[in-house]
Amino acid sequence: MNKEKRTEIFTRLRAENPSPETELAYDTPFELLVAVTLSAQATDKGVNKATAKLFPVANTPEAILKLGLEGLKEYIRTIGLYNSKAENIIKACEILVTKHDSEVPQTRDELTELPGVGRKTANVVLNTAFGQPTMAVDTHIFRVSNRTGIAKGKDVRQVEDRLLRLTPKEFLLDAHHWLILHGRYICTARSPKCNACLISDLCEYKEKTLD
Ligand code: SF4
Questions:
Q1: Is 60 in the same domain as 116?
Q2: What is the CA radius of gyration of the chain?
Q3: pLDDT tens for residues 8-59?
Q4: Whether residue 123 sits in one domain with residue 34
Q5: CA distance 113 to 174
Q6: DSSP secondary structure code for residue 137 in this structure
Q7: pLDDT at position 132, please?
Q8: Which of 64, 70, 102, 183 has the fewest CB atoms within 10 Å, i.e. is most exposed?
Q9: Which of the listed residues 152, 178, 203 should we mutate to test ligand 1's pocket, taking the one with most ligand atoms within 8 A of CB?
Q10: For residues 55 and 93, what is the distance between their CA atoms, to the nearest angstrom?
């Protein structure tokens, strides 16, 4: 795919949704960190339902530690893998309190030192809470990037690196949100909605289905 096409794709995605946001509910970087940690293999809706009850009671590392492991589990037991997620969040809170003055760190290295925080979670927090132009490549971004030809890659890391290199600067900050939303609602894994897709004429997917 050439630069002009890529620019046109992001121009259209931006025109449709000028200020894209995560669908996870959060007010502070710490809330976002907890929500993203909980969202692995869970829906944003399910996470929002749980955090709507958790955050009014505990939305700081100290408050979560005060709840304790069993107390935290009570709030998140509707979410898949809640046992290990609760353990990771408690351990992460301990590190935040002792090493980071209870603040969420703003570097990838420091974030990925926290239990349960991988590269993707760190990228989401850096981008969405701190405005850094990172690419948190999830299954949706991986699929859309490969199908359209925006950034082809055999694994998420390759797609991440190519997106960072190939996305025109003006779109870098929001690109991952546009691609996630496009993959979640239009370019779905099974039966992509090519007829309703606003970039169908630019997409290079050989199997796109247009009437
Ligand atoms: S045309 Fe189809 S395959 Fe291409 S981006 Fe749109 S929905 Fe996805």
A1: yes
A2: 18
A3: 999 999 999 999 988 899 999 999 999 999 998 899 999 999 999 999 999 9
A4: yes
A5: 25
A6: -
A7: 95
A8: 70
A9: 203
A10: 14
The Å distance, Cα 186 to ligand 1 centre, comes to 7
Q: Distance between CA 194 and CA 158 in Å, rounded?
A: 25
pLDDT digits (tens, 9 = 90+) for 137-177: 999 999 999 999 999 999 999 999 999 999 999 999 999 99
pLDDT digits (tens, 9 = 90+) for 67-93: 999 999 999 999 999 999 999 999 999
Is residue 106 within 8 Å of residue 155, measured between CB atoms? no
Q: Are residues 145 and 186 in the same domain?
A: yes
- The annotation places the binding site at 187, 194, 197, 203
Question: Atom of ligand 1 at shortest distance to CA of 197?
Answer: 6
- Residue 34 inside a domain? The answer is yes
Q: What's the domain range around 187? A: 3-19+134-196
Question: 174 an active-site residue?
Answer: no
Tokens representing 10 are 């992001």
Distance CA 31, CA 24 (A): 10
What does the pLDDT read at residue 58?
Answer: 97
Widest pairwise Cα distance in the chain: 59
- How many residues in total does the chain contain? 211
pTM: 0.89
Return the CATH number at 187.
Answer: 1.10.1670.10
Does the residue 42 lie in any domain? yes
* Active-site annotation holds for 99: no
